């Protein structure tokens, strides 16, 4: 059956918890290539180098009435008094849902930047960027 | 073991010079005495980018086989790949052979892949 995915199908999980009030997420994967062209070649040739994964997400700064605020939890990964350590990685799961089927990309990442603010006439939101560390742990897209 | 027959990624050749000595008098006139009829001291810098480690270690094996910079050797034709001029123009001139000017340098790029740079000098 044909299926067009939209933002309605998107989910973002951090450390296995589906985040509430997510307005968008993006994931970028890139591959560094190493040139293997030698003298006499007419076309450039390459071999695979290292991969990199990073992305961003935007969450409404929202309290659900039970004092759960996922945006605040994400912000605290960077906005903390004690500084960031090796153990401050998060498991990011970027998901598109199709009925009972989940199309996931999962990776371990550091949240590398956060920004949030307040503005008259706008909903406060937290924008986060993350940098993957190591290989992807799940790819079921 | 002979020098690895790989095509370099880049090649830099310097033609060297003839052996002569220059004497300059107080009035500025110059006298030169030629000590030999063969050009020597040509240099060749070769780099082999992003090759397998199994090829990179061949350079060390060859470096050992010629006792570092001690012995001289010829280069395989692969080092001239891409050169369409006279083949002898960028090789060691008549009577010369190559020896290592400095040890081969290996830079590890990623697991299993390295880049190698070699500096050679032509000697009589």
Topology:
The complex is a heterodimer of chains A (141) and B (124).
Chain A: E1 10-14, E2 17-18, E3 22-35, E4 46-60, H1 70-75, E5 90-98, E6 101-116, E7 125-132, E8 138-139
Antiparallel strand pairs in A: 1-2, 1-5, 3-4, 4-7, 5-6, 6-7, 6-8
Chain B: E1 10-14, E2 17-24, E3 30-40, E4 43-52, H1 53-65, E5 97-110, E6 113-123
Antiparallel strand pairs in B: 1-4, 2-3, 4-6, 5-6
Based on the model shown, name its key terms.
heterodimer; A: 141 residues; mainly beta; 8-stranded antiparallel β-sheet; 1 helix; 50% strand; B: 124 residues
How would you describe what is shown here?
The complex is a heterodimer of chains A (141) and B (124). Chain A is mostly beta strands and 141 residues long. Chain A has one domain (11-34, 44-139). Chain A has one helix spanning 70-75; strands spanning 10-14, 17-18, 22-35, 46-60, 90-98, 101-116, 125-132, 138-139. In chain A, strand 1 and strand 2 form a beta hairpin. Chain B is mainly beta. Chain B has one domain. In chain B, 10% of the residues lie in helices and 48% in strands. Chain B has one helix at 53-65, and strands at 10-14, 17-24, 30-40, 43-52, 97-110, 113-123. In chain B, a hairpin with a 2-residue loop joins strand 5 (97-110) and strand 6 (113-123). Chain A binds chain B through residues 34-41, 47, 49-50, and chain B through 6-11, 48-51, 81-83, 109-110, 113.
Low-confidence stretches of chain B: none
Mean pLDDT score of chain A = 89
Q: Number of helix segments of chain B?
A: 1
What portion of residues of chain B belong to β-strands?
Answer: over 45%
Task: Compute the number of helices of chain A.
Answer: 1
Largest sheet of chain A: 8 strands, antiparallel
Number of strands of chain B: 6
Number of domains of chain B: 1
Low-confidence stretches of chain A: none
Tell me the distance between the termini of chain B: 21 Å
Task: State the assembly state of the protein chains.
Answer: heterodimer
How many domains of chain A, as an integer? 1
Write out the strand line-up for the largest beta sheet of chain B, numbering strands in chain order.
1-4-6-5
Radius of gyration computed on alpha carbons of chain A: 19 Å
Radius of gyration of chain B: 18 Å
State the end-to-end distance of chain A: 16 Å
Class from helix and strand fractions of chain A: mainly beta
What helical percentage do the residues of chain A reach? under 10%
Biggest interchain interface, per-side counts: A-B, 11 and 16 residues
Structural class of chain B: mainly beta
**β-sheet strand percentage of chain A:** over 45%
């Amino acid at each position: 059956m044909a299926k067009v995915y939209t933002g309605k199908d998107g989910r973002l999980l951090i450390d296995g918890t589906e985040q509430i009030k997510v307005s968008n997420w993006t994931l970028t994967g890139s591959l560094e290539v190493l040139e293997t062209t030698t003298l006499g070649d007419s076309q450039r040739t390459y071999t695979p180098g290292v991969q990199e994964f990073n992305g961003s997400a935007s969450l409404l700064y929202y309290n659900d009435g039970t004092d759960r605020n996922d945006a605040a939890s994400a912000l605290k990964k960077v906005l903390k008094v004690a500084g960031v350590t090796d153990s401050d990685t998060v498991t990011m799961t970027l998901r598109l849902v199709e009925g009972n089927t989940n199309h996931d990309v999962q990776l371990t990442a550091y949240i590398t930047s956060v920004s949030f603010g307040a503005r008259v006439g706008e909903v406060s939101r937290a924008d986060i960027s993350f940098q993957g560390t190591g290989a992807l742990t799940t790819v079921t897209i | 073991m002979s020098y690895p027959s790989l095509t370099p990624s880049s090649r830099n050749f310097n033609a060297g010079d003839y052996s002569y000595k220059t004497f300059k008098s107080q009035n500025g006139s110059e006298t030169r005495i030629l000590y030999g009829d063969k050009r020597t001291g040509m240099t060749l810098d070769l780099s082999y980018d992003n090759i397998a480690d199994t090829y990179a270690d061949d350079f060390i094996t060859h470096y050992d086989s010629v006792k570092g910079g001690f012995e001289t050797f010829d280069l395989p034709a692969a080092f001239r790949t891409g050169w369409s001029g006279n083949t002898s123009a960028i090789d060691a001139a008549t009577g010369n052979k190559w020896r290592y000017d400095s040890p081969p340098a290996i830079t590890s790029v990623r697991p299993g892949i390295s880049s190698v740079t070699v500096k050679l000098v032509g000697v009589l």
